[in-house]
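Try this one yourself first.
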């Protein structure tokens, strides 16, 4: 008998009693989801802005290259999605829609159904994610329930702008991705 077969035989011979999985407690957020989401995003160095504030920011900042896949902001797009992600290296602002957001940690789920290019949220200088108010859930348990049946080949939770800290605890925002994250709640 090979060593592998011997080990498997010994494991099978163990008479282990089957134990039920533990109960998952209810981690409900008891207060206002939008208020909790806003506070969580602020703690992650992101900002919640209104549709009007975003429109004003775009008008005043004069971003040279803007791409929006969000119907509410498609009028701000001044470029098309390139064939290769490197051609978007100079993208100033990307506006995309999120599917579900978790109030507990400000994470927003994005999948390829709303991303014309998988690299989009990572290569833009500034990122705006639009989320519907009714798609904000209390916690990650609820968020995972929402996306459980999705058939996407790619998905990611984003909870703030890119950031890193060194050993001296010096925080750098925008170190290896978007320098800012603004969220518009509709």
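Now uncover the answer:
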């Amino acid at each position: 008998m090979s060593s592998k077969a011997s080990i498997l035989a010994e494991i099978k011979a163990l008479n282990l009693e089957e134990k039920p999985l533990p109960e998952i407690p209810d981690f409900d957020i008891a207060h206002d989801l939008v208020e909790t989401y806003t506070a969580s995003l602020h703690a992650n160095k992101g900002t919640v802005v209104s549709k009007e504030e975003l429109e004003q920011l775009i008008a005043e900042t004069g971003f040279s290259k803007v791409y929006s896949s969000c119907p509410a902001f498609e009028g701000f797009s001044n470029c098309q999605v390139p064939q290769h992600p490197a051609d978007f290296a100079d993208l100033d602002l990307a506006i995309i829609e999120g599917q579900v957001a978790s109030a507990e940690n400000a994470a927003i789920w994005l999948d390829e159904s709303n991303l014309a290019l998988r690299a989009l949220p990572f290569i833009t200088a500034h990122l705006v994610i639009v989320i519907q108010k009714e798609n904000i859930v209390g916690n990650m348990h609820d968020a995972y329930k929402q996306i459980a049946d999705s058939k996407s080949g790619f998905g990611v939770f984003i909870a703030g702008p890119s950031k890193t800290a060194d050993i001296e605890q010096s925080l750098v925002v925008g170190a290896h991705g978007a320098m800012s994250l603004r969220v518009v709640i509709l």
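Discussion: The chain has one domain: 26-185. The chain has a mean pLDDT of 88.
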